[in-house]
Amino acid sequence: MEEVQPAIIAHMSRILVSGSLAYDRIMNYGGLFADSILPDKANSINLSFQVEDLSVEFGGTAGNIAYNLALLGEHPDIIATAGNDFARYKSHLLLAGIEATTVRFVENDMTSSAYVFTDREDNQIAAFHAGAGAQPYNSPVGIDGRAFAIVAPGCTEDMATLPQSYRRQNFKYFFDPGQQTTALSPEALKNGISGAQILFASDYELGLIAMKTGWTEDVIMDNVPTLVVTFGAQGSRIRTRTGDAKVSAATPAKVVDPTGAGDAYRAGFMKGILAGFSLEACAKLGSVIASYVVEVHGTQNHKFTMEEVKQRHQQSYKEELKL
Question: Which pTM does this prediction carry?
């Protein structure tokens, strides 16, 4: 297979990570939701469930990506808005080596929160309160000393304005619309893709992008030099204007919860870019980092050392990771 070369090579420098910061409130119900839902009363549901446990986890796309970059020895700057209850999250980031000095604080609102109820057969009922995260960043974003930026799912206004700002400053950025693909207008999607160095998307999200923009994959490639498509346990695909490569997924020790794996993949991929790896090597590193997330509940509860990363890379790809 022809080696796909990286579009950019950056050296030791901070990465700007825009996206969301959120508390994930996870509740487990020992019964089945279906046992409490009366089919003939479905239009007037009034239910309350006694949950067995409640955990509050740190999440959000910007937080997840930054956390994994910090585990990889980087010092990312988070471009996101948080609320008046952010102190606990900030302490967590500081312990991980992330200063959080670039996070904008809003005093009159709370940090974004996801509420997830799960029954014993893993059926879920979820609710999301955007809170402060719905407010645009509205602060200057400095690029001096920064290698590049990633625009991850977050405030839709930021996802529209940041690419424009980066392009005006001739600053390299990656676009990752993710779960906000459905919320972004066709114009905002086209704006984010056009001028980006890399477009990240899952296979499903790529289909949504094509549907909303009316762009085929070939047209997308006319607007961005590199497309990275993830397929979960089936690995990922990297397409450039000169080649197309598939990379298998790394093998985790166990699979507990896939939530947050995509953010970890992006962090590993960007670490590879900083190290000057080929795009295929970046994808392999991204997959190795993602494999640690799926082994635990919560998107920022995993740990790894560089030696462990190298060992898993060797086990998964039968080649040495020089990092």
Answer: 0.91
Q: What is the pLDDT of residues 16-61, one digit of tens each?
A: 999 999 999 988 899 999 898 888 887 888 889 998 888 899 999 9
HEC letters along the chain: CCCCCCCCCCCCCEEEEECCCEEEEEEECCCCHHHHCCHHHHHHCCCCCCCCEEEEEEECHHHHHHHHHHHCCCCCEEECEECCCCHHHHHHHHHHCCCCCCCEECCCCCCEEEEEEECCCCCEEEEEECHHHHCCCCCCCCCCCEEEEEECCCCHHHHHHHHHHHHHCCCCEEECCHHHCCCCCHHHHHHHHCCCCEEEEEHHHHHHHHHHHCCCHHHHHHHCCEEEEECHHHCEEEEECCCEEEECCCCCCCCCCCCCHHHHHHHHHHHHHHCCCCHHHHHHHHHHHHHHHCCCCCCCCCCCCHHHHHHHHHHHHCCCCCC
Look at residue 318 in the predicted model and tell me its pLDDT: 97
Domains within the chain, CATH numbers bracketed = 13-21+61-108+136-317 (3.40.1190.20)
Chain segment 210-231, per-residue pLDDT in tens: 999 999 999 999 999 999 999 9
